Structures
1.
Amino acid sequence: MEAFVLNYNGGEKILKCLSRLSSEIGEITLVDNASTDNSVELVRKNFPKVKIASAGENIVARAFNEPIMNSASDWVLIMLGDMMATKGFLGKLARHAGPGVFAVSPKIVRMGGGTDWAATELSFRLGQPSISWNTQAEISAPRREAFPPITGLFNARLFRELGGFDALYSPTYYDDVDLGYRAWKRGWKCVYEPASVVEHDHDAAIGKAFSNVKTRAYRNKHLFVWKNADRLTLAQYALSLPFYLAAGTLLRGPPCLLGFLEAFGRLDEARARRAEDEMRRLLSDREIREAVAGQRGQ
């Protein structure tokens, strides 16, 4: 097993992340997204056994793709650099690592209190994706979830088969949703283990690194539907789209409409990827929703 930790200008915080993680696993690679601070130098000085994989630019989660494609490990742990492991978290994830499981995710709590991530759910309301992170729910037993966060234990062979995080969503937003949903379409499960806990020392790095994040989030929501929704969901989406754009722009502002227009410019890319994925699809949107909700556990 091998761990990959994503870094972008992590500063001293990345040292805290690696210090905790190194007590759980021996083989660690820092995946650096073209940091401009001294975080890589700090890691080389303080953790000489940690390998460094450098991306030429900040491509967020896609930076994981190449090192995982080249890894010989059957299972890989991926983490963001502002996530802090708690004792025994990895072993609790690993007990679910079996046939047909794509990913196992921990409970993610805020350093200052509260929950950031707990057993994701995804549904389509009139064709529009709706996501729940269950941050207010008390979930005490393992259960299935719609998609894993960008922190968890992943089946490396299945990750490679899916091609990793998709550049269609570049630079970020919905790429994690897409990865987990594509796994479900092929019948591979995503599991949530609440006994495994990771602390999130959040620093809003995405908002600092990129502009127009709201527009891109809306854009990627449409791309996700065009790429992944089945025919029934697409029909519902098409019927509700005029109302969604009109009401969304009125209530939420220009990013709602601008996001759709940006997405339309990538329609051909989304359709091409859809054609590739649909050839391997085993479960419909309804069947995925029922599979996630129908069994609490693996």
Note: DSSP finds twelve helices and twelve strands in the chain.
2.
Amino acid sequence: MKQIYNYCIGVLFVFSSTCVTVFSQNDQITQTLISESNCPTTQAIYKTDSIARSEAEIQICRELEKMHKRMRTIHPDYLKVGDSVGIMTVSSPVSQSREKADSLIDIVRSWGLKVRLGENLFKHEDGAFSVSDMERGEELQRMIDNDNLKAIIFYRGGYGAIRTLDYVDFSRLKKHPKWMLGFSDLTTYLSIFCNMNLESIHCAMLNSFSLANPVMDIDTRTTRAALFGEIQRYDVEPNEYNQSGEVEGVIVGGNMSLMAVSHGTPYDLKIGENNILYIEEVDENMNTIDRFMQQLKKSGKLSKVKGMIIGNFVRAKDTGGWDVSIYDLIKTYTQELDIPVLYGLRSGHGKINHALYFGQPVKMIVSPEGSSIIFE
């Protein structure tokens, strides 16, 4: 990526030297591009009076800006047919029959991928877990260190990922990145990857894939599409809770319970001014979800984000006399923020779980006519 970036800069300067039209530094196009761009190269080009700027140059600089945004993140290669992936669990053990589990694993093979199963995937030797925390962590480390594996797909969530952190070193992924896929309990890992600027995929795991019609099942289909780099955008229907606006940033977040558990630890999600915060939850009562929102607000995280995506909130129980919907409750917090907020994306726990790229530059457009998430 850096070589391509430098090459394009060289092409731009060669091209510019052949132009005869020179715009003043005060022209409207220049000022707009300088003010909108965070790319030092783009700013330097447009602040130089001696460089001619045609429409072609402007387009090149916009492409350079996109590349500059991508260079801020660690981007694993998208998969292709014939690549190898690992499948394992660091959370709760596999609870389905071996026959059903094998059929779910075969769905991944049907994508044209080679599969390496974790050696502890089907064990039940340590109470609530397949094997000990150390064994699960060391197994994950071996998959991280295996350069032949282009992705690691977690079979299921549940509980236990946080218990493995003492036995895993994720730093190797900075120079040898691979896709890590999961959600729910795996929010713990996804937060760490976001803090590392490593792109990952928030998506359904194998235990929720459909065997009845895997080709049409949205969970299965979008998980595969994300791995192969085929998701370009999601268009979402209008929602009465939306707050309109347009923003560019990177999506971070996940399951609220897991984000709350990590608060105050070295693994706490670091929210920055370039972040679009995504949240989802399942089987929590309204008091607990309000407590999570209070934590996000009082920790200063809500005030930092550029936008929000409100995913699935499933079976939120009103045990405190709130007498409003869960989305009404969340709206009391988002309406205080002068940012775009998208409600209604079906992602997270629930019957439909659209895959999302975490840590990847996106554009989010929210309007009364409908909303879009555009992956760059």
Note: The longest helix spans residues 55-71.
3.
Amino acid sequence: MKVLVVDDEKENLYLLERMLEENGHEVEIAENGKEALEKLHINNYRIVISDILMPVMDGFQLCKTVKSDKRFADLLFIFYTATYVEEKDEEFALSLGADKFLRKPLEPEKFIETIKALILNTELDQIKTSKIIIKEEKEILKLYNERLIHKLEKKMIDLEKEITQRKQAEETLLQVNEELRDFASIVAHDLKAPLRNIRNLVEWCVRDSAKNLSEEGKDNLNLMVKQTTHMNALIDGIYRYSKIDRIHKKIEDLNLNKLLWEVKEILSPPENIEIIIPSELPILAVDKTHMTQIFTNLIDNAIKFMNKPKGHITINYEERQNFWHFSVADNGPGIEEKHFERIFKIFQTLSAKEEVKGIGLGLAIVKKVVEMNGGSIWLESTVGEGSTFHFTLQKL
């Protein structure tokens, strides 16, 4: 038996097509009422199974058009819907001439049994006596508008509820984030003092008792100094990371050439590393602190991990229609592709634990600042050849 299935959801079309074909039906599909009508005028179908909410022409309009045309007098029309599921929706659908109204989802066995029963009843001419068809055009239009308005009102109420729930969730999230930032500040403040005391005490021991210490004892004390220094850097990092989105953005016209020379001077790269800055960088309307954080961390990373006798770090830019595209490239060790996402996460570093080159916060800070300015950041890298960090900034 030839069946036309009408639905704008491809997944629904696929499931119905497969289910009907497995039960011996020949199936064709359409994605809206208009497409279905075109196929109905070309092919002979025994059954139409249609959704209601669809673009171009919905199921109600399709059913009314089909049932008003004598050429389709023997065509069975079944509604199968998940949106219009109220009793009044069913009443209106049947008043248009629909032969059956089914609500999604329905178990496959039940669905097939319903269709078989409908075909059998039609052949026995039992279903025609129970159907009430409204023929007055004005009444049909009135009921059609009522169902659409009701559905629209329900959607608006659901939308309002969803907006309210999302606002509440956002407010809760903001409160939690604020509490976490406060906690980070408190922890940073409360831990720094005892750490400083520990470090000072160890340094005194090294200095005042050096003659009485074995080499192993000296090494252990020096390791303690190194570890407390690293812990202090971690605490500072946590504090800085927690403060990023608390700092009020001050937008100003910023000369990037001047900024990058300041960053270069602060970082003081060793003589074997050359930082190449374009002679004419743009003047951007940005927050100076944010730009300083981005370039300082990216260039500092390239310096720290440089493993070539002659290092090169090159800054470039490109102007696009709605954003600026910057890159910081180096000829360092490079990074394996499997680490591309990991390195932007907080406290993630590719250094061995004994090689304390960083605390894994620099790139996390860069990513956060870039995204706060409407941009994105990504990495291109080849192991042994170097890495290029790309980032974009939205034009203001």
Note: The chain has three domains: 2-135, 161-244, 247-394.
